[in-house]
């Protein structure tokens, strides 16, 4: 819907330009600016800044989770911490390659951007896994609270089961 609206708006604006030469010039300049912006977004320095932002956000999520979780999921959280450190090491290696490359060629640029993209995917998986661990712990705590409240009320129904996500904590595969 939005792309149709944008296309219609662009065609309407182009029809306001009276001269075909100016109209084609405007289309060419717009396409050139779009291509230049796309190339700018694919520069390793821009991609690396994005990776640093994602790592920073994931570290914040991990640190909040580490403060909250003191149960049996601390092992899974520690494993995700190791993965976080591995991605940070990979990002450092990419920075080293950028500094070491001197005048990079397009092939080096492409390889660097691909490697940075892989790091972003890995760090996003780590962040998702940490959030899943936190939610599983939250569900476990809520189940314990429900059971404790039922015991206080005298409704001991034997519902001591944890939700499925809390029962299968050890099977987090990323």
From TrEMBL:
Residues 1-23 form the signal peptide. Keywords: Signal. The keyword Signal applies. This is Fungal N-terminal domain-containing protein. It comes from Favolaschia claudopus.
């Amino acid at each position: 819907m939005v792309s149709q609206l944008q296309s219609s708006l662009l065609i309407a604006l182009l029809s306001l330009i009276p001269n075909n030469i100016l109209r084609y010039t405007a289309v060419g300049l717009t396409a050139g600016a779009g291509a230049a912006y796309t190339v700018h977004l694919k520069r390793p320095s821009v991609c690396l800044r994005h990776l640093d932002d994602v790592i920073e956000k994931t570290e914040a999520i991990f640190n909040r989770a580490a403060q909250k979780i003191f149960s049996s999921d601390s092992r899974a959280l520690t494993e995700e911490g190791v993965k976080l450190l591995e991605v940070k090491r990979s990002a450092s290696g990419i920075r080293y390659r950028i500094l070491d490359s001197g005048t990079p060629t397009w092939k080096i640029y492409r390889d660097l951007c691909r490697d940075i993209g892989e790091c972003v995917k890995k760090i996003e998986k780590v962040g998702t896994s940490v959030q899943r661990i936190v939610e599983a712990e939250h569900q476990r705590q809520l189940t314990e609270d429900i059971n404790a409240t039922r015991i206080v009320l005298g409704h001991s129904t034997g519902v001591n089961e944890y939700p499925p996500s809390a029962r299968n904590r050890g099977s987090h595969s990323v």
